[in-house]
Design brief:
heterodimer; A: mainly beta; 11 strands; 0% helix; globular; B: mainly beta; 6-stranded mixed sheet; 5-stranded antiparallel sheet
Chain lengths: 116, 111
Amino acid sequence: DADVTQTPRNRITKTGKRIMLECSQTKGHDRMYWYRQDPGLGLRLIYYSFDVKDINKGEISDGYSVSRQAQAKFSLSLESAIPNQTALYFCATSGLIGQGDTGELFFGEGSRLTVL
Amino acid sequence: GQNIDQPTEMTATEGAIVQINCTYQTSGFNGLFWYQQHAGEAPTFLSYNVLDGLEEKGRFSSFLSRSKGYSYLLLKELQMKDSASYLCAVRRYSSASKIIFGSGTRLSIRP
């Protein structure tokens, strides 16, 4: 089983609809992240959270919101989806730096979202 | 802010060596990562550098010069399965440190 699980893996929706992408992890990491990937633009950070009470905006948070329901769960919401939010979305986790841990990111398999 | 630059595309021959460069500008540098990503899949961790010098892991090596804001990923004995995108990412040290990615380099291996 995957350590970082994203649902849904694929979703097609219409402009104006509310969409939630969910992420759960079994790695026991405190840090969780949401990135989106567009062709030619690499991975861009949307939001990140270092614990249940900590939420931080990334590079491109406009139009998105997040909820950290528990240490293991971090969801991304699009309140009113628009076509330019069509992208591949990745959830990731990382451990604390130090004690042999580089703090590298572990990614989920991605959620492909299409907004028509 | 952070600026991370790497070539968009590269081509190399099976069995050869290729070097993918990454330059960055950031305050509070706290580590550089290289990830491999096959089309349609999640990125997977390749290497990490936080001090100057070369880190070697089998066919892959990564180099860092903090004073120059420069890193490279060296892939030896190229195999067809090495055709993928290679992502350079920088972590910035701050009270809310985060990892920011470059746009990635798409590497094609020809027979």
